[in-house]
Specification:
Layout (H helix, E strand, L loop, with lengths): L3 E4 L4 E4 L7 E6 L10 H19 L3 E8 L15 H9 L3 H18 L7 E4 L4 H13 L3 E4 L3 E4 L36 E6 L17 E3 L1 H13 L3 E7 L3 H16 L4 E7 L2 E3 L2 E2 L10 H6 L4 H9 L7 E3 L1 H23 L9 H13 L4 H12 L6 H15 L13 H15 L3 H13 L2 E6 L2 E6 L1
Parallel strand pairs: 3-4, 3-10, 4-5, 10-11, 12-14
Antiparallel strand pairs: 1-2, 6-7, 7-8, 8-9, 12-13, 15-16
The chain binds adenosine monophosphate and zinc ion.
């Protein structure tokens, strides 16, 4: 059954085949590490993980690269405003390098908690400055650049005939400042910085010498240079959030195709936004919800993953705590079913397994239709002809794509915090510290856990 994916470039759902052999070369735009990732960002990484898992499920091999933007992303996503990394460093009273290290680590931890498969190559913009300078140099040689004195080296978008094709931009209709902030000296509103000069009166923490002057690279050149370095000048899939279509990815294409004069990426794929009561998820204020915030409200990160699976990646997904609770309940129900199936020792061979495998494959291969795939899973669970052994087999098979860690579901699914409290209470009882032991019992009760002291030791259950 052929895998079909929606390609932003053609605006069509097309049969996907790797360009070379059986290996899919895939680039996903990574985080800007000046702050925690919010759950909106994480939705995009979950979508990309579903894509990765679906490719693997279809027996393709994969070479996957993700960048870490640790320099060059300005606050307005354009060429004005402060640089995000320097802003983060100022906010936290740390060096830019410390900030980058810290948030790269927290991001990687988030991926792990969400059971997102790690990319084969994770590359930092600051480790690839030479490649970025080289690409700008090639663009310069071909006449695509100009300098705005005191500001930087810019890409002259009018010189690239196909500029804006990905986003179907109405270049003629674009008034200066309509899409991007106006920068004095720009020849066209869509022009963008390739290299920004360091301010004359100030030493930046991150800056490098270049043929044009000391400074730092623009955000778009990073991805173009690194994707090409690791995946070549013609590869299979490039992904990101939907906001990247009109600027970031449009500019990435312009930078590479101006030099190579041929199509760079075969499939462009974009995940829709997670929205919060019709607002955009933001990296500040009340709209800033991280995975830690989710955990602090006693949700498991995988509850959030389940929640994301309930919407197609091309649809907006409305976040609310009630909706997340709904997902948690459905997921809990699924885990309870697994526990029940494990106690059933009867072995059945209904001959219906293949039918459900095919049905599931059809959903995921139809442009990653996860809501339908979940519906097939629930339909299968409700099919009385199937034995528990078959249901478990199918669930674990589907989980290669769902990524809900179903094989690891344990008898009672409690958080580490609860396990810790139970242990602490055992210790208190051993020490005959009855006051502390009662305190912990009450605390657990308030969290919905009831303790029973039996001759074999403590037992607990959910209220
Ligand atoms: P950033 O760290 O800002 O570069 O963003 C990382 C990724 O998250 C990019 O692919 C963005 O397109 C994506 N993104 C940003 N906001 C959201 C959102 N609210 N929902 C889904 N994806 C988002
Ligand atoms: Zn990128």
């Amino acid at each position: 059954m052929a895998l079909k994916l929606y390609n932003t470039l053609t605006r069509k759902t097309q049969v996907f085949k790797p360009l070379q052999d059986n290996t899919v070369r895939l680039y996903t735009c990574g985080p800007t590490v000046y702050n925690y990732a919010h759950i909106g960002n994480l939705r995009t990484y979950i979508f990309e993980d579903i894509l990765v898992r679906t490719l693997l499920y279809n027996n393709f091999k994969l070479k996957r690269v993700m960048n870490i933007t640790d320099v060059g992303h300005l606050t307005a996503d354009s060429d004005n405003g402060e640089e995000k990394m320097e802003l983060g460093a100022k906010r936290e009273g740390k060096t830019v390098w410390e900030v980058a290290d810290f948030y790269t680590k927290t991001f990687m931890d988030d991926l792990k908690k969400l059971n997102i498969l790690p990319p084969d190559i994770v590359c930092k913009a600051t480790d690839n400055i030479k490649e970025q300078i080289e690409l700008i140099h090639q663009l310069e040689k071909k006449g695509f650049t100009y300098e705005i004195p005191g500001d930087g080296i810019y890409y002259n978008t009018i010189k690239f005939k196909k500029y804006g094709n990905l986003a179907k931009l109405d270049i003629e209709g674009l008034k200066a400042g309509a899409r991007v902030e106006l920068v004095e000296g720009k020849k066209n509103p869509t022009d963008f910085a390739l290299w920004k000069f360091s301010p004359k009166d100030q030493k930046r923490q991150m800056e490098w010498p270049s043929p044009w002057g000391v400074g730092f690279p623009g955000w778009h050149i990073e991805c173009s240079a690194m994707a090409t370095k690791y995946l070549g000048d013609h590869f299979d899939i490039h992904c990101g959030g939907i906001d990247h279509i009109p600027v970031h990815h449009t500019n990435e294409i312009a930078q590479i195709e101006a030099v190579t004069k041929k199509k760079w990426v075969n499939f462009w794929m974009h995940g829709e936004f997670l929205v919060l009561e019709k607002e955009k998820m933001a990296k500040s204020g009340d709209n800033f919800i991280t995975l830690s915030v989710v955990e602090s409200k006693n949700f498991d990160p995988l509850d959030y993953r389940y929640f994301c699976l309930s919407a197609h990646y091309k649809s907006k997904l409305n976040f609310s705590w009630e909706a997340l609770e709904g997902a948690r309940n459905a997921f809990k129900n699924l885990k309870n079913r697994i526990i029940d199936f494990r106690t059933d020792k009867k072995i059945k061979e209904s001959g219906k397994k293949e039918k459900y495998q095919k049905k599931f494959l059809k959903c995921i291969n139809e442009d990653l239709n996860m809501p339908l795939a979940l519906a097939v899973m629930w339909e299968m669970l409700g099919d009385n002809k199937l034995g528990s052994n078959e249901k478990l087999d199918l669930l674990f098979y589907f989980d290669k794509v769902l990524g809900l860690n179903l094989e690891k579901v344990k008898e009672e699914n409690v958080s580490d915090e609860i396990k810790n409290l139970v242990e602490q209470r055992e210790q208190a009882r051993k020490n005959k510290d009855w006051k502390r032991s009662d305190q912990i019992r009450d605390e657990l009760k308030s969290k919905g856990i009831i303790l029973e002291d039996t001759p074999e030791g403590v037992r607990w259950k959910k209220a």
